[in-house]
TrEMBL record, chain B:
<protein>
    <recommendedName>
        <fullName>Large ribosomal subunit protein mL38</fullName>
    </recommendedName>
</protein>
<dbReference type="GO" id="GO:0005743">
    <property type="term" value="C:mitochondrial inner membrane"/>
</dbReference>
<comment type="similarity">
    <text>Belongs to the phosphatidylethanolamine-binding protein family. Mitochondrion-specific ribosomal protein mL38 subfamily.</text>
</comment>
<keyword id="KW-0809">Transit peptide</keyword>
<dbReference type="InterPro" id="IPR036610">
    <property type="entry name" value="PEBP-like_sf"/>
</dbReference>
<dbReference type="InterPro" id="IPR035810">
    <property type="entry name" value="PEBP_euk"/>
</dbReference>
<dbReference type="InterPro" id="IPR008914">
    <property type="entry name" value="PEBP"/>
</dbReference>
<keyword id="KW-0687">Ribonucleoprotein</keyword>
<dbReference type="Pfam" id="PF01161">
    <property type="entry name" value="PBP"/>
</dbReference>
<keyword id="KW-0496">Mitochondrion</keyword>
<dbReference type="GO" id="GO:0005762">
    <property type="term" value="C:mitochondrial large ribosomal subunit"/>
</dbReference>
<keyword id="KW-0689">Ribosomal protein</keyword>
<keyword id="KW-0175">Coiled coil</keyword>
Length: 177, 402
């Protein structure tokens, strides 16, 4: 539940309609959208202990795996599991590719996944995939994702400043470009 | 058992070994079960969130997906794949890493085959079914294409993309495939925006009894209103649902005359609406977008809705401070005690200190060029010196009032 405190105070105006908009007594506001807090950078991001293997600090994570004949790319959420997936196994991709695990397959998979990510509103996705070769298949996949418009770095969680904190960082909702 | 071990060790003579001294000094006490036996966070969350499957199950209320004979499909696909393997141009392109597939074709094929399962997963992730229908869900079998046009720029609506309210001012063009005699209803709701009731939605657009494909010939029961997410509340979902009607339905009780700018009138509950018309309606198509605050909304609130623009800020929970101890050993006393004082009192003291040096008519003193090099005249305790230096450098609690 996301509770928002109301800043302004209302004055009632006498209007002839039933309950006019100006007479609505608005105090708290609850936004039920489960992805709202993550998008606003305020939502909880799991961290794990500092001695653990990194790769747990994300809202949405990119996973890439290959079997003998196909490649699978998924976007996973830390709570809800697999949210978005694309693979060369799907007929939509298979019928246009020559081979389902070569460099062209990886590049086109990246393009398709980027398109689906943008359509679902996932613009920033965490990825800890380092390509083993700088001009290999995985590098092509990541390049296609970035060209498609998906940012492979999530912004850090905005934690509210405690009274004793040394610095006050700028709030993400007050940044206007 | 290990807890008792450590407690016993505090009675050991600390002069015996430095190792024992270090253990007691750092106070490592094992709480609860040892690692390996204790449940991990994941296991604990599973236990807490366990839902009995006989009580918590979901019902499919949508249209059935088209059934395709798997054997014929396989035959066709195998023949296509065989042709692809023989295609030497394709092989050359793939070898030179220049093969680019047609994304539109791929998208169409995806929507026709596995698209609805993926969109259903996404909608679950966004909580669409949960907040609109509760325990029911449906597979969006009918592909729904919704496009907003503003200044010759198309803003399509997919499943969760961002569209600003200034781009969604006028009615969108809706396109879907249907037979000529079928009747459809299209509803646009916002489950996140309600100002007074939390489980109700605001209805933005309702067109009923649409013959076939033509939205213009359908009955406009509630006229289109642009999205108006207030400032500070973040992203609101706006969901288009396309229902298939069995017969012509009378929506006169929901009919709103005119542009209907009164927000109380626009209160709507999809669950109640669907419950009353369960036999006649089946949800078939789904599309939703997210909308954020825009600077054009200020005028919209003032002129169109005739109300003051509400502005919100997220209410963060207060910081967790561990319960106060009588004897806080090895803790800086001023910082420790400040955590348990009323923050307003602390801010008031800072403000009083600041106001002592403020003259009502003279300009404020210029900022210090070297704040760390200012001399402390009288004998000032070290902790107070540190506090004053922090105020001068604008670190810490002074930022609460400035």
């Amino acid at each position: 539940m996301q509770y928002l405190r109301h800043c302004n105070k209302f004055t009632s105006r006498g209007l002839s309609t039933q309950v006019a908009n100006a007479d609505l007594n608005i105090t708290d506001f609850v936004n039920r959208n489960p992805r709202n807090l993550e998008r606003m950078r305020i939502g909880y991001k799991p961290d794990g202990y500092h001695v653990e293997k990194p790769g747990k600090c994300f809202w949405h994570k990119l996973n890439l795996s290959q079997s003998g004949r196909y490649v699978y790319a998924t976007i996973e959420h830390f709570e809800n599991g697999t949210v978005l997936q694309a693979s060369t196994k799907e007929w939509a991709l298979k019928k246009q590719l020559y081979k389902c695990i070569d460099s062209s397959a990886y590049y086109n998979l990246g393009r398709v996944l980027a398109e689906r990510c943008l359509k679902s509103g996932l613009i920033e996705v965490y990825s800890n995939i380092t390509p083993p070769k700088p001009d290999g298949k995985v590098a092509k996949f990541l390049e296609a994702l970035q060209k498609g418009g998906v940012n492979l770095q999530e912004p850090p969680q905005f934690k509210p400043p405690r009274p004793w904190d040394q610095y006050r960082h700028e709030k993400p909702w007050e940044v206007t470009e | 058992m290990s807890c008792i071990l450590w407690k016993f060790s505090s009675n050991i003579n600390t002069r015996s070994s430095s190792a024992v001294r270090n253990l007691i000094r750092h106070g490592h006490h094992l709480r609860g079960k040892p690692p390996g036996v204790a449940r991990s966070l994941k296991q604990r969350l599973e236990e807490i969130n366990y839902k009995n499957p006989s009580l918590h199950f979901r019902v499919d209320i949508g249209l059935p997906p088209p059934v395709v004979s798997r054997s014929t499909q396989l035959k066709e696909r195998l023949s296509v794949v065989k042709q692809l393997r023989k295609n030497s141009e394709l092989e050359k392109l793939a070898r030179n890493k220049q093969l680019l597939i047609n994304l539109e074709q791929a998208n169409e094929e995806w929507l026709r085959t596995s698209g609805y399962y993926h969109i259903k997963k996404l909608s679950d992730h966004y909580g669409v079914y949960e907040h609109l229908f509760g325990d029911a869900y449906f597979l969006p079998v009918v592909p729904l294409c919704v496009n907003y046009t503003k200044a010759d720029v198309k803003h399509p609506v997919y499943f969760g993309n961002l569209i600003k309210p200034s781009d969604a001012e006028t009615k969108p063009e809706v396109h879907y495939e249907s037979e000529k005699e079928a009747l459809w209803s299209l509803i646009l709701t916002n489950p996140d925006g309600h100002f007074t009731k939390q489980d109700q939605e605001y209805i933005h657009w309702f067109v009923g009894n649409i013959p076939g494909n033509k939205i213009d010939q359908g009955e406009t029961i509630v006229e289109y209103l642009q999205p108006f997410p207030p400032k500070g509340t973040g992203y609101h979902r706006h969901i288009f649902i396309l229902y298939k009607q069995e017969k012509r339905i009378d929506f006169s009780e929901l009919k709103k005359s005119g542009p209907c700018l009164n927000l109380e009138d626009r209160t709507f509950s999809t669950l109640e609406f669907y419950r009353q018309r369960q036999e006649d309606l089946t949800p078939g198509g789904l599309a939703f977008f997210q909308s954020d605050w825009d600077s054009t909304l200020t005028e919209f609130y003032h002129n169109t809705l005739n109300m003051k623009e509400p502005v919100f800020e997220y209410d963060f929970p207060p910081p967790y401070i561990r319960p106060q101890e009588w004897f806080a050993k090895r803790r800086p006393f001023n910082l420790y005690l400040d955590k348990y004082r009323d923050p307003k009192q602390i801010n008031k003291e800072f403000l009083m200190r600041k106001l002592k040096n403020v003259h009502p008519f003279k300009a404020p003193p210029p900022p210090l060029p070297y704040p760390n090099a200012v001399y402390f005249k009288d004998s000032v305790p070290q902790w107070l010196k540190l506090e004053k230096i922090k105020s001068r450098l604008k670190w810490g609690r002074i930022n609460e009032i400035e």
